[in-house]
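Intended use. Records such as the UDP-N-acetylmuramate--L-alanine ligase entry shown here are meant for training and evaluating sequence-to-structure methods. They are not intended to support clinical decisions.
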Amino acid sequence: MQLESIKQVYLVGIGGIGMSALARYFHKRGCLVSGYDRTPTELTTELQAEGIHISFTDSIESIPPVFSLAADSLLVIYTPAIPKDSPILNYFRSAGFSVKKRSEVLGIISGGMFTIAVAGTHGKTTTSTLIAHILKHTQYDCTAFLGGISSNYNTNILLGNNGVVVVEADEYDRSFLTLHPDIAVVTSMDADHLDIYGNADSVVESFTMFAGQLKNGGSLICRKGLPMENGLSYSAREKADVYAENIRVENGCFKFDFRSGSIAITGVTMQLPGLHNIENAVAAIQTSLLLSIPADKVKAAVEEFKGVKRRFEFIVKKKEVVYIDDYAHHPEELRACISAAKTLYPEKRLTLLFQPHLYSRTRDFADGFAEVLDEVDELVLLDIYPARELPIAGVSSAIIYDKINHADKRQCRKEEVLGLVAALRPELLITAGAGDIDTLVEPLKELLSNA
């Protein structure tokens, strides 16, 4: 299907962060856009305010009539998270409409563009958003499809006037294999999505295939230690082809010096904390230098980067209490989040409120979750958020809880959280998870702001 022929777009699962970016993209192109999602959220409310029709009933009757007729110019996009028995999805399939995954549509959009694709089990959202920010801030420009809401631009879609696109390359369901980048960045390859891949070796194999899809003359940038060949390595922990050194904390911000061959950028300030974010910045800076953007402009852009919502996002920042919200839902993401918080606030007692995401991930990484959650001073563990999955016999958040050694731990239901936090009076609170734990952010903000 050619991009120019698309006049109407229906998205099954429109409320997802990647799907909503596509909805906004086509809406801004002048297409008639509509979609379905299971429940209303802040994001679906924003889409409706922008003029996009959304239904919350998975039935054929909820599809606006105009989307039942225009077969030639109608594109139907779906997310793999939608159940296979979805009446809406199966209607469009059986009726012969053009039905494509979100990743396939990104492949169509980026096909004729200079594509910068960022992949990784962790770090891809922050890194791709930072690259897009640098390109916008320096007026190099780009279009960008982001896996989170940029705090600088308050959106997950940026539109540009040149032929450059930045995309977050999602490994779930091997989606990133629809992309053929000019520059590929690989931030990490930890075992995840084992419900799809089966084992860690298959994850590595898929990432290797992604890196192999570089266009002729393209550039690969990968974190040092990953099993990748023929790419530039980067690190903030050791010497590599591209690296950060002289890392320090000054006035509550991380600073570092960047090195790439004969290029040195000294005293780079990063508003986001943690070694992992310095590594993300190193990859983003190197990507920008490959585009011949002057180093001083890149440095200035990095210093203005405010991050991504729900990625170590400060919600309350007072002397008495600091509250941070984070999307971390894998043991290594939690480890990075906890480490960054402890580095910034070594004197504060850390209370972590964690909601496990997916039964399969909880089962596969119970030991890893328990190990990292042992590092906090106080733990509050919620029930598993199932997302797309049905329950698995014998799997609950208790299998993590029972493996945690320290005594200051609690299990509770979501509706009990506010009362418990009020009683605990935390000094440093982190809420973490990829489920609906974000619905607690505003109530907790109000509670702690008035404490």
